[in-house]
Design brief:
alpha/beta, 4-stranded mixed beta sheet, 4 helices
């Protein structure tokens, strides 16, 4: 995201913006250990994880990234399923996304923390990601009809 627009992440060793962590939304407590296995498969088992719940939905992402590693672990999240990445290498992001697909993980919204998005409230980002997914799905459906 740059000025509220989405940008493609390349396949490089360039680190993404922000502290090295994952902000995880919409994961039930019983699923969280499965996601840890996915992280091990993606060689990211040591990355900090913040398991976000509805309690944080009105917090700015700049506040959320300051939460302690592992906070929310073992708690169910009623938020939409989303993975917000910060500070990892672009290659690691591509590897993580591929590993999630290969593991058959439930489809998630994906975002990368940026200087713009860190000023947003979590709920605003999730709403924007949902709108973007719906727009992409409509475009794909129109292409199928043609």
């Amino acid at each position: 995201m740059s000025n509220g627009t989405f940008e493609k992440v390349t396949d490089s060793d360039t680190p993404l913006y922000g502290p090295r962590m994952l902000l995880l939304c919409g994961f039930a407590a019983k699923i969280q250990p499965n996601f840890q296995k996915v992280l091990e498969m993606a060689d990211l088992s040591d990355i900090h994880r913040i398991w976000l719940t509805a309690e944080q939905r009105h917090h700015r992402l700049s506040e959320v990234v300051k939460l302690a590693d592992g906070i929310g672990s073992g708690e169910d999240s009623q938020l939409p399923r989303a993975i917000i990445v910060s500070g990892i290498l672009e290659n690691e992001l591509h590897n993580l996304m591929g590993t999630c697909r290969a593991a058959g993980m439930k489809n998630a919204l994906w975002a990368v923390l940026t200087p713009v998005s860190e000023t947003w409230q979590l709920q605003d980002l999730l709403d924007e990601l949902i709108k973007e997914r719906e727009a992409i799905q409509r475009t794909q459906e129109k292409k199928k009809e043609q």
